[in-house]
Amino acid sequence: LWFTNSVSSCRDRTRPWYESAAAQGHPDAQYNLGRALDRAGSDPRRAMALLRSAAQQGSFVAMNDLGGMLMAGRGCPDAVPDLAEAETWLRRAAAQGFHRSMVGLAGLHAQKGEDEEAIRWLSQAAEQRAEPEVCFKLGMAHLHGLSGTTVDAARGEKWLREAAEMGHP
Questions:
Q1: Dist CA 33 CA 121 (whole Å)
Q2: Residue 164: which residues within 8 A CB-CB, separation 6 or more?
């Protein structure tokens, strides 16, 4: 089901109503418009600016997605990732309890070779049991170890069983 304000917006799957609300400073509209622009890849700098504005107003999902853009370099000058700013935004969203930001921080720390910190963040996200994939990733990390962590087969099995009970294939 697709609700729109016109036949053309239904046909081309656009959401023109976000433009005016985003321009008025509404964080949800800024997030939704920024997210759509990021997904389309059409204007990453504008997407980043919209997400940053929504994040500055407290939107934890905007903080998370802004962190993801910064980690990947989308919208950054010369497409160079800004891991320091990414970590700042991901930490702010994680402080609000957002498990996806915790997973993002785990990935960021793994990328930097900080495996113990990566496991710590992945564990915090898995404890929420919000997504079976997170439990699966933690189970695999314990089962096989990361480059600098010790293998813990019992913990690995615990989290893999948890993921399976949650429906992970």
A1: 29
A2: 132
Secondary structure letter of residue 2 according to DSSP = -
Angle at CA of residue 125, ends 123 and 129, nearest 5°? 105
Q: What angle do CA 39, 46, 76 make, to 5 degrees?
A: 85
- Residue of 85, 93, 82 whose CA lies nearest to 54: 93
Give the count of beta carbons closer than 10 Å to the beta carbon of residue 23: 11
Q: What is the pLDDT of residues 76-96, one digit of tens each?
A: 999 999 999 999 999 999 999
Note the pTM of the prediction, 2 decimals. Answer: 0.88
CA 77 to chain centre: 21
98, 97, 95, 72: which is closest to 85 by C-alpha?
72
